[in-house]
Each structure stands twice: as C-alpha cells, then as structure tokens.
C-alpha cells in the first residue's frame, strides 16, 4: 500500500518526498522501483518511537503519511507529534483500537487547525468509498458484507488467510 502511495504522490506533484523507516534497505528497494521519480525522493533512517527524532523529521513537512504498522503501536506517537508540530497527517490504519483512538483526537486536531486523515487504506478507506458508490445505485440497502482474499502476489493464498 505504501509503495503505491509513494508512487502516486510522486506522480501527482513536483514536491520532494522524504521517506523514513528504521530499515533503510526497505526504503532503497522502494525508491529503486520508482525509476525516474527516484530523483525527487530521499530516504532517512528514523525510529518513530524516538520522539525528538520524529519531531525533527516531520518539522516543516506539508504532509506526514504513516504507513508503518502495527498501527496499534505506531499511530499514537506519529499522530500526536503531527498535532504538536502542526503538520497534516494521513494514515492507512486498519486496526480498530488505534483508529478509534485517532478519531478521539478529532476535536484537538480541529482546534489546532491540523487536518488528519485517518484510515485511508483498503479497509477502512477504499472499502468505505466502494460501499458508498454501490449504495448510491440501489433503492434500499439492508446490509453489506465485504469480503476479500489476500495472496502473496504470486497467486497463492496463504493458509493463515484461509483460516481467518
């Protein structure tokens, strides 16, 4: 999800992108796959649990996009740092507890004038948009079930996915 988001952000603007992760080799692989867009992308090692380093990394950013899970651990420190630094925030959070905790900060974000976009990944996020599109085409809706299968990208579905 994040690699695709980075690609879309890079194609949609001429702004420089700074990608951070605790594992630089992961970032370098992502940047290498972006070919021509890579010239506007820089990488930086960051432990997002180091509050001082996190605040320094996001200082002056136009937008911080959190793609590092597990969101139950990563959402709170990044979101609160963004609120403190007055930097807009977007995440792909798909964990119920951390999504609810982030949404509970709505009034603070609103009061501080910091836009926060929570749960913008597949679910919640795209699944919500698709449901809205479908319901607009129907006269009445009693319920909607959303189901999907996830594979390793090679056409094989893992046993863990099938068991859940």
From TrEMBL:
Transmembrane segments: none annotated. SUPFAM superfamilies: NAD(P)-binding Rossmann-fold domains (SSF51735). Gene3D superfamilies: NAD(P)-binding Rossmann-like Domain. InterPro entries: NAD(P)-bd_dom_sf, Sacchrp_dh_NADP-bd. It comes from the Eukaryota. It holds the Pfam family Sacchrp_dh_NADP. Residues 3-114 form the Saccharopine dehydrogenase NADP binding domain. PANTHER family: CARBOXYNORSPERMIDINE SYNTHASE. This is Saccharopine dehydrogenase NADP binding domain-containing protein. It comes from Aspergillus udagawae.
């Amino acid at each position: 999800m994040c690699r695709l988001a980075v690609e879309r952000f890079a194609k949609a603007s001429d702004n420089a992108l700074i990608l951070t992760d605790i594992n630089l080799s992961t970032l370098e692989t992502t940047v290498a796959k972006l070919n021509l867009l890579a010239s506007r992308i820089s990488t930086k090692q960051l432990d997002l649990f180091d509050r001082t380093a996190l605040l320094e990394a996001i200082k002056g950013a136009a937008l911080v996009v959190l793609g590092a899970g597990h969101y139950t651990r990563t959402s709170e420190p990044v979101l609160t740092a963004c609120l403190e630094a007055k930097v807009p925030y977007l995440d792909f959070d798909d964990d119920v507890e951390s999504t609810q905790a982030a949404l509970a900060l709505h009034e603070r974000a609103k009061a501080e004038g910091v836009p926060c976009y929570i749960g913008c990944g597949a679910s919640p996020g795209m699944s919500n948009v698709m449901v809205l599109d479908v319901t607009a085409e129907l006269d009445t809706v009693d319920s909607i079930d959303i189901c999907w299968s996830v594979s390793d990208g090679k056409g094989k579905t893992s046993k863990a996915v099938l068991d859940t």
